[in-house]
Amino acid sequence: MAPNHRPGSALLSVFFLLFLSILINYIDRGNLSIAAPLLKDELRISASQLGVLFSAFFWTYSAVQIVSGWIIDRYDVNCVLAAGFVLWSMATTATGLVHGFAMLIGVRMVLGAAESVAFPSYSKIICLHVPEQHRGMANAVIMAGMSAGPAVGTYGCGMAMARYGWRPVFIVLGLVSLIWVAPWLRWMPKTTINEQRAKATISAVEIFRQRSFWGASVGHFCIAYPWYFILLWLPLYLVRDRHQSMQDMALHAALFFVIYALVAPITGCIADACIRAGADVTTIRKTFMAIGHSLVVLGVLACAAPDARLSFTGMLVMGGGLGFTGPNIFAFAQAFAGPAAAGKWIGMQNSLGNISGVVVGPLTGLIVDRTGHFGWAFVVCAAVTFVGGISWTRLVGRLEQVPWRAESHAALVGSARNMA
Fold first, then answer.
1. What CATH number does the domain located at 9-419 have?
2. Predicted TM-score (pTM) of this structure
């Protein structure tokens, strides 16, 4: 696509399908936390054990990211995404069929491995088909789906679980989700395997040498921490500490995700418009990250307040703050990596960033078991988020594509000529 062109209708259809895929992705990964109040009683497990069950997803999700990035840079990204989608849908179905703590951990690990292909695939597609001045909105579409998924899942699945139990919801959701694969295979973007392989010559060592990679990875960890904190623990917090019913919890938790889903595309559009108007890309992206992290810190601290209204307001402020950061997390990586290394860079950054999911489950469960409430868990969350804001603004360099070695550049030029 020429730099000044807007995405065409065919690409808009692609991004609608990507929106649906990540929406389903996050319904699948977040449903266990929605079922937590019911599942905790059924299995007779502690908050610490529940935290381990939550983190099992991230054991494989984080570990397999690097492999997924390599596969995506090496093979057809469209087919890799489709295969991962089928596997994670089947794992969701299996969750409703298995019994016992150990078996639930096993299917959550399979779900994590399957879903690890998602974000590296999205970023590879964006790098191949969307210019810099439209990437804020392209990433915002993904982030809107990421937040709409828990909103739909928390409200719709929460209500369904309250009426039918948690197992039927998992089974039906996993099977119905498979319908997505057919339109994806029909309308997925046309990129030849040779074009993708020509861009797969950057090694992991070269990426590890970049200071901005480590700055972005630390920032990613620190902003993913409050996101997973809310995704995993908000339902139990509202039921246990705020004494809400399953129905009230489903409504209030869904509002958090709705705010995120609304704010992300708005901020993505504003950032893109500023860049198209001539504003410095680095200044715009870093400013939005600083605003977002500040809002999240304030929101997290307000959530811990004894007053229910202030706590609820803080939850909404958190959602708005995450809406500022969401469209920019992968825009940083896409700018640095370019098409040559998008799959590997995103896979590696996402691997390190999602270690937060491994940490936040057991750590929060331990804090709740030791203190009897969520107060200190919110304080830890705010501190981690503050560190992330520093990392994005101070450790990450200017948003310019890394000048990869000469042979990679030659491969890119040759690929561009073939596409002309």
1. 1.20.1250.20
2. 0.76
